Automatic annotation (TrEMBL):
<keyword id="KW-0808">Transferase</keyword>
<dbReference type="InterPro" id="IPR036282">
    <property type="entry name" value="Glutathione-S-Trfase_C_sf"/>
</dbReference>
<dbReference type="InterPro" id="IPR004045">
    <property type="entry name" value="Glutathione_S-Trfase_N"/>
</dbReference>
<dbReference type="GO" id="GO:0006749">
    <property type="term" value="P:glutathione metabolic process"/>
</dbReference>
<dbReference type="GO" id="GO:0004364">
    <property type="term" value="F:glutathione transferase activity"/>
</dbReference>
<keyword id="KW-0963">Cytoplasm</keyword>
<dbReference type="InterPro" id="IPR040079">
    <property type="entry name" value="Glutathione_S-Trfase"/>
</dbReference>
<dbReference type="GO" id="GO:0005829">
    <property type="term" value="C:cytosol"/>
</dbReference>
<comment type="similarity">
    <text>Belongs to the GST superfamily. Tau family.</text>
</comment>
<dbReference type="GO" id="GO:0009407">
    <property type="term" value="P:toxin catabolic process"/>
</dbReference>
<feature type="domain" description="GST N-terminal">
    <location>
        <begin position="2"/>
        <end position="81"/>
    </location>
</feature>
<dbReference type="Pfam" id="PF02798">
    <property type="entry name" value="GST_N"/>
</dbReference>
<dbReference type="InterPro" id="IPR045073">
    <property type="entry name" value="Omega/Tau-like"/>
</dbReference>
<comment type="function">
    <text>Is involved in the conjugation of reduced glutathione to a wide number of exogenous and endogenous hydrophobic electrophiles.</text>
</comment>
<keyword id="KW-0216">Detoxification</keyword>
<protein>
    <recommendedName>
        <fullName>Glutathione S-transferase</fullName>
        <ecNumber>2.5.1.18</ecNumber>
    </recommendedName>
</protein>
<dbReference type="InterPro" id="IPR036249">
    <property type="entry name" value="Thioredoxin-like_sf"/>
</dbReference>
Length: 158
């Protein structure tokens, strides 16, 4: 059995991206729930730069950042591919993943702001949704990323 561990937190969407990927690919893993107000020594040792979850530990070696982890899982466990094999399709996919990463955090900010600040965030989310309606990827397809779930569906928050 592969020695795969995931340090995460149930409140974190980034942890869930990795969990979904592990499950879609059928990779057995041990999950370690972190208390973000009292991070474990292991987490601080594994991610000394950002001190954040998720951290995947494969064979004792840590990998940080959800999308970096997902790309690693994709390379190591190619079953149920989440990234298109065609270079152009892959580039388009990365564009949408990057947009999701840039704009996604606005959604959670909506619940943590009030008044004028919240209104501005609301406007930018609506603007984003209109852009997605008008020129989102693969509108005719079943999933955001195409005919089957891919990395865009995993990364998106909107
Ligand atoms: N860009 C990172 C973001 C990870 C992130 O923001 N994790 C949060 C939980 S949602 C965290 O660990 N926060 C703890 C802290 O900031 O001290 C990724 O994609 O993995």
């Amino acid at each position: 059995m592969e020695d795969v561990k995931l340090h995460g937190a149930w409140t974190s969407p980034y942890s869930h991206y990795v969990i979904w990927t592990l499950k879609l690919k059928g990779i057995p893993f041990e999950y370690i729930e972190e208390d973000l107000s009292n991070k474990s020594d292991l987490l601080l040792q594994y991610n000394p730069v950002h001190k954040k979850i998720p951290v995947l530990v494969h064979g004792g070696r840590p990998i940080c950042e959800s999308m970096v982890i997902i790309e690693y899982l994709e390379e190591k466990w190619p079953q149920h591919p989440l990234v298109p094999s065609d270079a152009y399709e892959r580039a388009v996919t990365r564009f949408w993943v990057r947009l999701a990463q840039e704009k996604g955090p606005n959604l959670s900010l909506l619940y943590r702001t009030a008044g004028e600040e919240q209104e501005k965030i609301k406007e930018s989310i609506i603007e984003m949704l209109i852009v997605l309606e008008d020129c989102g990827p693969n509108k005719a397809k079943k999933f955001f990323g195409g005919d089957s779930i891919n990395i865009v569906d995993i990364a998106r928050k909107f």
